[in-house]
Design brief:
The protein is elongated and about 105 Å long. By secondary structure, it is of the alpha+beta class. The protein has two domains: 17-248, Up-down Bundle (Rhopdopsin 7-helix transmembrane proteins), CATH 1.20.1070; 262-484, PPM-type phosphatase domain (Phosphatase 2c, domain 1). It has twelve helices and eleven strands. Strands 2, 3, 4, 5, 8 and 9 form a six-stranded mixed sheet that branches. It has a five-stranded antiparallel sheet with strand order 1-11-10-6-7, with helices on one face. Helix content is 58%, strand content 14%.
Length: 485
């Protein structure tokens, strides 16, 4: 009797072992492909996180899509081969429901990054409908326990969107119109999408007839689509990075050119000490300054600030340099310098404007002439007294022939003049307060006895401290300090 029981026990164990092996054989393909899709998806997300430019979001959504597609068979296999605790089984059922309903939304988000025009609007509608159906289906599962109540609607939406996408990528005229891809890259995506669509169509046609195709067909079809889409997304990323590198190279050249149109050094006059500081916010800037030596006793100092930043402002700043050559004969008259510049530039600024200030210093006759076009005031310190000198006309580019009043003032040894652009006074702190005229005058007043270079360093240091450490420079900065010695 004992021998019979032992034999039955052995036979039962052998049967259980055979069943486990059979189940494992059935799940091998799902485990392999599920792992590949999950790991590949996580890798795509990691690559997207490290890259930049257009196409990165497509790669990121592709990674999420792949990871979601791979997580489902892995979760199912885990539940069958090694039944987990009850709470984990419940969690897996929730996970499966979420993945089932929302994978269409993620797939549409991936395709959205490669489309243009009406197809982009169509995909946004698919995303909205898919999200609505998905949230409703998940809610229905939470409250009733049924996870397939809205699956037919989800499948219908997926079939319609896939049909539209297949048409767009397969028809050359439509792909050129609605996809952000070159023709060669588009053919790769078209091939992968068509393979996936044909596999999906085959599976859905034969299932109603009682034939259940192997799961490996689904995995292979998706793998082809995944590889083609990944290739396309990477090509878009690489093309974008090449464009960015080209732009950065061109900006470097533009900065070198812009630097070349600025004075290489300050003019040397026996009774003047001048220092200029130029800090662009980006690679190129809209600030401009220049020195115009009239003779051995007179020098003109021009400071200008173009509205906006970057390349457009820098191009207009270069125009000021060219225009300045035309007004050199009247460099001893600030009014005519500003009127001449405005006359040349008016009508060329395309909705931008320029503020400017011109200071002429005559060391022989001990006087200075100053005029400005909508520019921040000139600061003059004499002993313990600090003055704000304003003699403003209208900014450049508004009227063809405005007048610019001129302020004449005497100069004496120890006087200090400060010309600057609004990048000095407009930085904001964490509370949104501007650096402002008051803070500028306070720093200048506290450093009157220090050399111009130390004053400039102190002022730039105060501006940096005023701004939050995480905030970049907010505007172009130009500072010119002139001491009468």
């Amino acid at each position: 009797m004992r021998w019979v029981l032992v034999s039955l026990r052995c036979l039962g164990g052998a049967c259980l072992q055979e069943q486990a092996l059979a189940m494992l054989r059935d799940r091998v393909a799902d485990i392999i492909f599920g792992t590949l899709f999950l790991v590949g998806g996580l890798a795509a997300c990691s690559i997207a996180a490290m890259r930049r430019g257009s196409g990165v979001r497509a790669l990121m959504w592709l990674g999420v899509w792949s990871a979601m597609y791979g997580a489902r068979p892995l979760a199912d296999s885990l539940a069958v081969l090694a039944p987990p605790p009850h709470w984990f089984q419940v969690s897996l059922s929730y996970l499966d429901t979420v993945l089932t309903y929302l994978i269409l939304v993620v797939a549409s988000l991936a395709f959205l990054e490669l489309t243009l025009g009406k197809i982009r609007s169509f995909l946004k509608a698919v995303i909205f409908l898919g999200l609505t159906i998905g949230l409703a289906g998940i809610g229905f599962f939470i409250f009733t326990g049924s996870n397939d109540k809205l699956i037919p609607y989800n499948n219908l939406l997926a079939t319609c969107s896939l049909g539209v996408l297949v048409t767009v990528v397969a028809v050359p005229s439509l792909s050129r119109k609605y996809l952000v891809l070159p023709s060669q890259t588009n053919r790769v995506l078209a091939a992968g999408t068509l393979v996936f669509a044909m596999e999906a169509l085959y599976v859905n046609v034969v299932r109603p007839w009682g034939y259940s195709p192997p799961h490996i067909l689904d995995s292979l079809g998706f793998a082809v689509l995944l590889l083609s889409f990944g290739y396309v997304a990477l090509q878009v990323v690489f093309a974008s990075e090449r464009r960015l590198l080209s732009i950065e190279s061109e900006l470097t050249i533009a900065r070198e050119i812009q630097t070349s149109i600025l004075p290489g050094s300050s003019p040397e006059l026996k009774d003047l000490r001048i220092i200029a500081v130029y800090r662009p916010m980006t690679a190129v800037a809209g600030d401009f300054y220049d020195f115009i030596p009239v003779d051995e006793n007179r020098v003109g100092v021009l400071v200008a600030d173009v509205s906006g930043h970057g390349v457009p402002a820098a191009l207009i700043a270069a125009m000021i340099k060219v225009a300045l050559q035309s007004v050199l004969p009247c460099a001893n008259d600030p009014r005519e310098v500003l009127r001449g510049l405005n006359r040349i530039l008016c009508g060329q600024l395309h909705d931008q404007f320029i503020t400017a200030a011109y200071l002429l210093i005559d060391t022989q006759n001990r006087k200075a002439l100053y005029s400005a076009a909508g520019h921040p005031p000139l600061l003059r310190s004499r002993g313990s007294k600090l003055e704000r000198i304003e003699s403003n006309g209208i900014v450049f580019g508004v009227m063809p022939d405005p007048d610019y009043p001129v302020c004449e003032m005497s100069i004496s040894p120890g006087d200090r003049f400060l010309l600057y652009t609004d990048g000095v006074i407009e930085p904001q702190n964490g509370n949104g307060d501007y650096f402002g005229d008051h803070k500028l005058e306070q720093v200048v007043g506290n450093n009157q006895s220090r050399p111009p270079s130390e004053l400039v360093d102190q002022l730039l240091s105060e501006i940096r401290r005023w701004q939050p450490a995480s905030m970049a420079q907010q505007d172009d900065i130009t500072l010119i300090v002139i001491d009468i010695v």
